[in-house]
Design a protein that fits this description.
Elements (H helix, E strand, L loop, with lengths): L1 H105 L5 H48 L8
Helix pairs in contact: 1-2
Length: 167
């Protein structure tokens, strides 16, 4: 019986040793997995920081472009105002010349120089009209670009609110 108890004791000890080895192996694997996860987490944090920097740089660039585009819109607005002023002045000159032509015709004079002047004023008026159309088209295109830039910036700002930090 003593032999049986010694055998049972040996089996129990062996079982405890095997169980201890299993627990040690499991703990080792868990620690190794935790270390691997920690390294992956750190690499992801570095990648996130790089992406955030890229995004910040992109936002800075987009804001600079937006400012430049806004300045172009203002410049076009001023040029349009100038063209409109020139058109009005030219229109008044044209009306004056037409009135003088009518007066000359009533007196049966030949208003050749006035007709040439009228022709020149009409050509200038046409050029100013074309210039105005071109400026308006450019302004519209730039305003569309500006709207697109503003949409991109607001989309980035909405998404940019989420930041991950390392504990």
């Amino acid at each position: 019986m003593l032999q049986l108890t010694d055998d049972l004791m040996s089996v129990k000890v062996a079982g405890l040793v095997v169980g201890g080895l299993i627990v040690a192996a499991v703990l080792y694997k868990c620690r190794r997995a935790k270390a691997d996860l920690q390294r992956k987490f750190e690499l992801l944090q570095i990648e996130i920081q790089k992406k955030e920097k890229e995004q910040d740089d992109m936002v800075t660039t987009l804001k600079a472009v937006k400012t430049e585009v806004e300045e172009q819109v203002d410049q076009l607005r001023r040029e349009l105002e100038e063209v409109e002023t020139n058109r009005e002045e030219n229109k008044k000159k044209l009306q004056t010349v037409e009135r003088k032509i009518k007066e000359k015709e009533m007196t049966f004079d030949k208003p050749e120089n006035l007709l040439r002047e009228k022709e020149n004023l009409l050509r200038v008026q046409w050029q100013l009209d074309e210039k105005k159309k071109n400026y308006e088209r450019q302004k519209l295109n730039i305003e569309k670009l500006l709207e697109s830039l503003e949409n991109q910036l607001s989309r980035i700002n909405r998404k940019g609110g989420v930041r991950i930090c390392m504990y």
